[in-house]
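New here. Your pick:
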Amino acid sequence: MKTLLKLEELGALVLAVYLFSTLDLSWWWFIGLFFVPDIGMLGYL
């Protein structure tokens, strides 16, 4: 089961990267938006 979940997350990441590549945005946006949930969690510290 663990392997299946890891593969599912990997597939979601690959799909996200592919869909983002179809947009006409800089890759800095992808990196920044990737870490938004982590930055938001700092408010709980």
